[in-house]
Amino acid sequence: MLERYVHACSLTEASTEEPAATRERYKERFPRGATRRMTQLGLLIGGTLDELAPRADDAIVYASAYAESRALEGYLDSFPTASPTLFQTSIHPSAVQQTLIARQHPIQEFFPLTGRAHLAVQAMQVAFLSPAPRVLLCGGEERGTWLLEQRAASERTFAFALALSAEPAGALARVTLTPADDATSSVELTLPQFFDALRARQSLERVGAPGVCLGFSWL
Asked: Is 212 helix (H, G, I), strand (E, B) or coil?
């Protein structure tokens, strides 16, 4: 069994809020002019990471199934004169990169991950394997428009960030990863489901990826 402890948890949900409204809410939280080019998910991820006060020796694990849906839609809509700015912000790791670059903030390691049914547990596995003294596990999605109609985008806009370490003193929650007896018995644990469990302060004990049981207990 492997274990880590959660020392900080930041959550935010914008539901069906339009990007312009999110940008207005967050404009004072970032360097002047930075929010003009930031995506909705970039603003939310940046806000949750800010509350955890990233350090240079931290590792960041970022999980998102769809990432910058709105920027990708805009980039595809911009053809035949493709927008280089929209291309830059539409790449999968963009949400984390936007806030780190805006603040010129170095970090030790950065692991962007994508997936679907097992993404939450797989991201936790990567966080456990990092040698950094503290790992910030963050994730989120932003609601799409025409990509949503094609089932290629999220229905919700949300973000979360957790600070994980091996130190139990003062922890908010204990997280364990244990081998599952039956590697074929995994059930779905998507990022929205994991976010909802965090928001409800719901403990978990689930084989959320093949051969891996995730335990999450609030203390």
From this structure: strand
pTM of the model: 0.93
Give 142-157 as a DSSP string: -B-SHHHHTT-SBSSE
For residue 183, CA distances in Å to 31, 98, 158, 187, 193 come to 47, 38, 30, 11, 21
Name the CA dihedral angle for 145, 42, 110, 77, rounded to a multiple of 10 degrees: 40
How far apart are alpha carbons 89 and 200 in whole angstroms? 31
121 SS3 class: helix
Place of tokens 């950065």: 110
Phi, psi of 158 (to 5 degrees): -160, 165
Distance (Å, whole) CA 127 – CA 4: 9
**Helix 94-102 and helix 40-51: axis angle, to 10°?**
60
Asked if 163 and 51 count as a contact pair (C-beta separation under 8 A), the reply is no
pLDDT tens digits, one per residue of 148-184: 888 888 999 999 999 999 999 999 999 999 998 765 5
